[in-house]
Design a protein that fits this description.
The chain is mainly β and 631 residues long. It is 2% helix and 48% strand. It is rod-shaped and about 145 Å long. Keywords: Signal.
Length: 631
Amino acid sequence: MKNLFTIIIFLIWSISNAQCLTNGTLDATSIGNNGITSVQSWQGTHGSPSTSGVVNTNTWVWMWSHTNRGEGIFTNYNFVANRTYQISFDIRTDANINNPNNTVLNSWVYAKVFNNLTTNSSNAIPPALLNSGQIVLQNTVSAYRGNNWTTVTISFVPNQNYTQLCFFPAMTASSALNGRAQIEMEIDNVTITPPVTSVFHFEDASSNMKTDFCEGEDIFLNGTASFGENQYYLDIWRRPIGSTGAFQWQDKLGSNGWTSGQLGVLNLSSLFGSQGYNFIPGYEYEVKVATSSSPCVGWVPSTHIFRVLSSNGSPAFTFNSFCAPNGTISVTVTATDTTVGLNHWWGLIETSVAGSTTDATSLGLVGSIQSGTTTTFTGLSKDKNYYIKHGVYNSCVSWRELRIALPQNVYWSGYTTNFSINASNIGNNVHVTAIAASNPVFVSHHWSISYAPNGSTTGNNPVGVTPTLSPDGMTATFNSGLVINTWYYIKHGTWNDCAPWGETRKAFKVVIQGLLANGEPEYAVQTKDVKQVENISLGKTTNKLENIATQEQLYPNPVKRDAFCSLTTDSKNVSKVVIADLLGKTKTILFSIKDTNTITFQIDNSITKGIYIVKIIKKDNTITSKKLIVE
């Protein structure tokens, strides 16, 4: 377990960390051949390097080499393995004779890093200078020869830890054999930029890296991967979870945000809590950290975000089922708990048993999984059974779910099966047009005409006239086989995926009510009564003999020919089962009692594919009607 407060890896900036280079300008207190001893923080590796320039204005170091002898300088600086440093310096080279040959000009000048260099007054080049250490720069005298200074900048990565930086020229060829020549090297304005980085992540008290924390949980900032800093700055910003707006400033660490030392591991909850600021659920927080190596390197900033989540979550929800404009059922679900940061899982599940919400009766997911606090499922049918499954979860809330079965039928205001009748174009035959009243959603229409002795609409004697339908089915015209002064009735049925079959029947006859001015007969449509047969839950008038019991289920539906159907009903009360097509043609079919709540019957091959109405005639003089699709 971590301490409640800051855990500092190193309390003091020590020599083992990156630091500033001392006297990189090579300021000297005197000029001449008195040696490097007049240059603070620099020493000679071999020989007696001299100083040039003007004291208190600009000085630099001059070195020579020939015949494997010469001079060199070094200073202390701690390089950490595998870190990237930027090393820069001014360099100028030459030879002491005019027109030196290529042997002289191709001699080397070096910048290298070392461990354990010591001062040696001998001008022999120590073998270790050539054979050990790591090269920062190795180039020929000719590369920098001339009166002008060349600034060299090198990105350098040490392959191990080193503690010294060294410069020296190296002419191993004999001076006597090359015109008494020697090479000369001048160095000034050395700078080293250490690799200061600002790297951190968030974790919990068990050192698990994370960005989502629960209400009341301690939040730790781990900055041990930062490097090279001797101070750091930290402040806090926030915005509501899910917001795309700007973060708003909240608080800074300490009096001015700056803290001496390395970043280490910080308990943000305790540090800011001691300042009177607490992290509350429902927000995401942006932490800004800047590290610096003062006075060598300015601040290096970085930011990361964490969230604080509520530890509570409820899967409760409400739903609203409605009939969509296309005549299918739509369901909008809305979560009761809208806490930010809470994940919502929504699934529409089809089930084989009405009202069931168990996995045992599930037929699988319908469509895709939805998310968010509210969503809508579309395209449902009354001929299938569904339930909604809603789960909530996040890293602080374990999975919790609620399942609610959906009603099969959905009703809407303004549902009607009513229609009007007009007579026109009367000659030898009666021409009658029936116009359906409009519904606020799509419905399918069925039209048929039958004889109505004495105006009765209970018979089933089709005239055999196939109506001419409008494209949307709302208008039907019967224009052959009808005569005046004869009673007929028109049956208009409607259905869709929201509600079951419903119908209206109107008895009529065409009569002559007088003569027109030209002496021609004036005809009129005379109606006798209206009979509606609809689902009682729709709020319509219902004939006692054709009450549709919506609680009774017919399955499977659709059904294939030569297969069996089952109906959940009071089986001992069933007297007869009749199947009728949409033209009114009926057929009595045999049924058997499976148990007290179920009857079964076969759809034999004589029944063609299409839409039918199955009527279950009861011993108590009631009738249950169900739409059945035969495939």
